[in-house]
Amino acid sequence: MHFYEPSQGHRLPHDPFNAIVGPRPIGWIASQDAQGVLNLAPYSFFNAFNYTPPIVGFASLGRKDTVRNIEATGEFVWNLVTRDLAEAMNTSCAAVGPEVDEFALAGLATAASRVVRVPRVAASPVSFECRVTQIIQLQTAQGQSVETWLTLGEVVGVHIDERLLVDGVYDTAAARPVLRGGGPADYFELGERFQMRRP
Ligand SMILES: Cc1cc2nc3c(=O)[nH]c(=O)nc-3n(C[C@H](O)[C@H](O)[C@H](O)COP(=O)(O)O)c2cc1C
């Protein structure tokens, strides 16, 4: 077995952490600053954390515009990245100033949300309107602050393209979600489905 203590370095050509904890769903997060300037960015340190009420969260490595916006307005919208939207998602990660609207940068139209003010990505077939619940600065095992913020939000509105509902059941594969792997450029699409019931 290759063993390493991350604090001492991994001794590999690439840090394997992201490739091991993968593929990951992507949080494509729309937000707005207090003046209403739109923002859109992908976060793959993203997941769902609760069912009732539904809560999703993402980690910002550094206090990025998305976190600042959510802190200012209390709202964000998660959008599903599908295969058709992969290139636009990638464009939206550009390191641009807070005054730049990544919807416009990526050529994406907005659609009005129903509960929050932040709009959603019109071309995305699934969006969650969210209200922030907690913004937590991470810390090390020694209690030292890490420059990473975990932002959690309650899902207060859900939009689903009806084409993804087959007899009312959401069809995960039909959406062709884009998943993030490791390294600078790896992404995945879904593989084979199998089923297993709990004991
Ligand atoms: C697929 C993908 C996943 C990303 N995941 C993260 C992440 O989990 N955390 C993070 O801080 N940055 C992540 N980034 C980089 C941010 O998207 C990038 O820094 C962006 O400019 C942040 O935008 P903002 O400052 O408008 O919030 C990711 C980029 C891509 C393309």
From TrEMBL:
InterPro entries linked to this entry: Flavin_Rdtase-like_dom (IPR002563), Split_barrel_FMN-bd (IPR012349)
A GO MF term: FMN binding
Signal peptide, first to last residue: none
Transmembrane segments: none
Highest taxon, organism lineage: Bacteria
Protein name: Asp/Glu/hydantoin racemase
Organism: Roseateles depolymerans
Organism placement in taxonomy: Bacteria, Pseudomonadati, Pseudomonadota, Betaproteobacteria, Burkholderiales
